TrEMBL record, chains A, B, C:
<dbReference type="InterPro" id="IPR029069">
    <property type="entry name" value="HotDog_dom_sf"/>
</dbReference>
<dbReference type="InterPro" id="IPR016790">
    <property type="entry name" value="Thiol_ester_hydratase_Rv0216"/>
</dbReference>
<protein>
    <submittedName>
        <fullName>MaoC family dehydratase</fullName>
    </submittedName>
</protein>
<dbReference type="InterPro" id="IPR052342">
    <property type="entry name" value="MCH/BMMD"/>
</dbReference>
<dbReference type="GO" id="GO:0016829">
    <property type="term" value="F:lyase activity"/>
</dbReference>
<dbReference type="Pfam" id="PF19315">
    <property type="entry name" value="MC_hydratase"/>
</dbReference>
<dbReference type="InterPro" id="IPR048274">
    <property type="entry name" value="MC_hydratase"/>
</dbReference>
């Protein structure tokens, strides 16, 4: 009996299946420091326990995207080992902050299947949940990937395409228990701009750039126990390049967005996202954001802001996303749509 | 008086000498996170405090190889600064798990000496012990190295070659106090294969590969306070290459072996090991294992499995170790013989 | 309204202004481990909690230079974003050790201004203070930088040049509360040389070298939340090189100085420093020290030693600092003058 994991193929997924992903992970101060070492992360609520306490939390949580990466990483051996492409995200909600000492595990429920007309692959939709050691869901999101068939003769399953919200309504966002921005310290946070200072349609060029190194993206991706060969093995692709984990680009762009969005403190919703073009080492990543929407919340002093976060190669024009053909421009790496919380 | 450490030469070692190595080291959550960032480590007992507790331990210990590297690193300034070659390991036993907050120090006892017939160097055998802050031995192993003479006129010492076991008998392995695999969660651990599923002689190709980066091996080797110039200084070797610490290859191969040996959780014995060929950055490391032996233990649900772990360059054929001349094939980097604990 | 930080220009500084720098930072075990991973740091007091306790401290503090880097990093967006050059340091005092769990923030008071005769830039002197969560000053130093003017028509301010001590008198050094070296363990510390063994004028070649990697200096510089573009963005300089943060060279040289100065445990004073030549990845850094002065202290068994720490490119002659023209030799990277504490 072969002992190694061949991954799942399209025909191995059934609607309603719940996959318990392996290798729970305890996170702590080490992950926190590494996140700050790998990304230019400066949002004060994650940098300072004191700032977090002044905001009504017991201490700084693990960065929301680090929590996402840990939960996501566990799904790779079961969901994306034979994936051809990562097609999209939807309905991502952060439900509980993750604190040092928490142990995370993940499950994925198969909620959609559609075989491609070529009969060689299909699209699998899963709802992934991240759980802590108290069996509370800390994160919940839908992702769909194109997966190869192994047995081309396997019959096509009944097509099921889940009905996914294009945008999470602001009223469904979960505000972390106790969060209170009424005594928010804008000086310590780094910028004076509050929720009311941002206008829908506004474009913010985050100015700074970071050149990507092989060692850094591998250290990050390994830290999340993401095992996809293409990120680590230079002999895997014919061109000898290691494809950079899309989540590395997400975290880099989000950290760069501090410059202009220092007060967009916590990420609570992921409406959608596309890895528009692949990223390789040597590229310099920059970022710009667009304000897509704003909403009030019931938490004291806390507003919600919906942002488009775009990662681009250095040299790209901020605000330029797609060409006349409706396709992403070649310099665009990432187009992410998320909800963050900001002082009002 | 020169203030810097010239290292010891062959004539400086006397049978029975015990060298107290410098710079004790407290390990913690940072080392744990870095180990997971530098190696694709996924064994559940080290990844999750909850899994460790369900296995009868108070929390996840520091990875057994990280403990080895810390203990080994301290010996470098006293044992291998003038070493020509690291010749072998034997009788390595992990006696106590190392937990966050523990402070490690090392001692080495000279147990063997043999001058080479050329009169220019000799082989030194040391038994190294790693101690925690309670003066308990956590790790104990024998290592022998070829060391240069400084004073070629120094008389050859009486030859003493220690009587070393080729393999640690299973009955002498020390099982961590409280370890209990009777309620082992194979789903969380990542693979269904238990002790009974492995057969002596079985070869497992671990499939995955990692391309080695200068920054990563230096970060790892520095973390263990290993000071050998050859790993860090590109001007040291005539070819301008930095030789990669053999322990980096050991940890890389062991982490890769998760895929097929996810349940070989704890390392308790090191029977022997050879760094068959040097490793440099840019190489892609893969690994395969051979089951060498199996034994029962007295701990509930815990079996012992003796494994050969082989690190190779990408492209090598799994299972191929030596040529017709009895020498290691050029693609073989590491041949390690160890005992691990596995659920029965 | 532009949301991103343009940085301050020369005309924006007024004598007496106190700038509260943004983004407080909680430090912990992760930063400690990363410091040991990024630099060959081996001073026992920072490596072992047990050694620190035997020296009268509650546990190992964060490395003094790590504390410096965190405090310094916060000043970059407000002080050096438009700086042309970092000109000097003076009167640096470490006033309180920083322990895991402490949260640091920084303030800078403008204490000197001098417009250059070209009318295009000027020199700004600031006294920067690092504070912990108890509002205690942990570090205090003066730094001066040359900053561009934005509005060339802005009138020149009155010239104020602060009266700075060339050397902090030994009697003004602050010894950490409780520090006691009377039972100092020289074997564990790594070298037998005590305060009395060093002579003023003595030169120590630290022998070891480290080749600089892009990933490593970026990880380090990011960890201190230093945002200067020139360290991270390969498209920023016309030559495509990333300039290495001067503090990376300081920490590298200081760690290398262990070999010969293992007992120069704690840094308590920074008399001055110059980044003599820029450092780029691929260079191999070595270091040498000169004993500049010695003084007794009131703490039991604790002496103070004033050292010149020089970082050089591999191949440079130890002890050679400046040419006949009085300028730093091209192989010199750093010339640092500091006070450390050593067992008597």
């Amino acid at each position: 009996m072969a002992k190694t994991n061949p991954g799942r193929f399209f025909e191995d997924y059934k609607i309603g299946d719940v996959i318990a992903h392996a290798v729970p992970r305890t996170v702590g101060e080490g992950e926190r420091a590494l996140y700050h070492a790998l990304y230019p992360a400066r949002h004060a609520l994650y940098s300072s326990d004191e700032f977090a306490r002044d905001s009504g939390l017991p201490e700084s949580p693990l960065d929301d995207l680090a929590a996402f990466h840990v939960v996501f990483g566990k799904t790779v051996p079961d969901v994306s080992l034979n994936a051809v492409a990562n097609l999209g995200y939807a309905e991502g909600k952060w439900l509980k902050p993750v604190f040092a000492g928490d142990t995370l595990r993940s499950t994925s429920e198969v909620i959609g299947l559609k075989e491609n007309s070529n009969g060689k692959s299909g699209v699998v939709y899963v709802r992934t949940r991240g759980w802590n050691q108290l069996d509370e869901v800390v994160l919940d999101y839908v992702r769909w990937v194109m997966v190869r068939k192994n047995d081309l003769g396997a019959p096509a399953p009944e097509t099921v395409i889940p009905d996914l919200k294009k945008v999470i309504p602001a009223g469904e966002l979960v505000i972390p228990e106790g969060l209170d921005f009424s005594n928010y310290d804008f000086v310590q946070a780094g910028e004076p701009h509050r929720w009311g200072d941002y206008e829908v349609g506004e474009i913010i060029d985050h100015v700074d750039g970071v050149t990507i190194e092989e060692a850094e993206h591998m250290i990050a991706t390994r830290l999340w126990q993401n095992t996809a060969k293409v990120h680590f093995d230079a002999t895997f692709r014919p061109d000898g390049q290691r494809l950079i984990y899309g989540g590395h680009v997400i975290s880099m762009a989000r950290a760069l967005s501090f410059n202009g969005l220092a007060n967009a403190q916590m990420i609570v919703g992921l409406n959608g996202g596309a890895h528009a073009n692949p990223c390789f080492s040597g590229l310099t990543v920059k970022a710009w954001s667009e304000v897509l929407d704003k909403a009030e919340t019931t938490a004291p002093g806390v507003g919600a802001i919906r942002l488009r976060l775009v990662a681009v190669k250095a040299g790209a024009e901020p605000g330029q996303l797609k060409g006349e053909d409706g396709k992403y421009l070649p310099d665009v790496l990432l187009d992410l749509d998320y909800w963050a919380l900001m002082p009002m």
